[in-house]
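Let's practice the habit of predicting before peeking. Look at the sequence and jot down your guess about where helices and strands might fall. Then scroll down.
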Amino acid sequence: MLTKLKMTNIKLLVFMLTIIFFGAMFIIAYTGNWSYFSFLKYVPGGDKTGHVVSLYILAYSFSWFSSFSYFKIKGKKIYYGVISVAIFITIEEFLQLLSPYRTFDLLDLCCNYLGVMLAFISIKFNKKLNSKRL
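Done guessing? Here is the structure:
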């Protein structure tokens, strides 16, 4: 069984790796080095699938890092990790209007939101399963 200290170290390591990975993705995207993303032409849905999957991973991971902490609005749980990623990607997508290497794409933003919503649904589903086991 993992001790609390070991779990904290694992979370910290995964958090750092996630930040490094997504930071590298943003640097690559904002400097115009698209060759790193050429594999997406072989993925069904291409970069849109990449948006959904990567934002799902990011939102779920950030929620996990924050121990699935939440606040309530009208009795509904809003997870800090999910809402912070949603705010971040909205700002990031609109910042693309200022970059010579990027273009604003409303469909990208919708795919980002889909990934975040899938993470939210997964968290809710996992919480229900865990509460039934107890």
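How did you do? The beta strands are 70-73, 76-79.
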